[in-house]
Amino acid sequence: MPRNWWMKKKSYSLFMLRELTCVFVGGYALFLLILVACAANGEAAFIAMLNSPVSIVLHVIALPMVIYHSITWINLTPKVLIIWRGEERVSSTLIAAVHHAGWIVLSIAIFVIVRAIAGT
Description:
Layout (H helix, E strand, L loop, with lengths): L9 H31 L2 H9 L1 H28 L3 E2 L2 E2 L2 H28 L1
Antiparallel strand pairs: 1-2
Helix pairs in contact: 1-2, 1-3, 3-4
């Protein structure tokens, strides 16, 4: 199989992009662990790490990658989570919509909690 097989169809390219986003998700998780270690050394080290140019670039790159990864992952949910209501299969669109809504609600809840903690 040629090295550029994934460039022949748009669906293959989007699949490979989704797989590439896993690297950014993992890298961001590692960054968060390093950030926690910096926080243990005091607030100044934590703030310095967040304000570093590397941190800012990482956030600018990682955010769209993580959002794309999350959206495509949630869109795959109806393919593996098949729900029956009696003899009728629940709509794939409904399953994905409920998961997207849950993601939005949880994101807002986490934002509100973090803002409340930061305000104190």
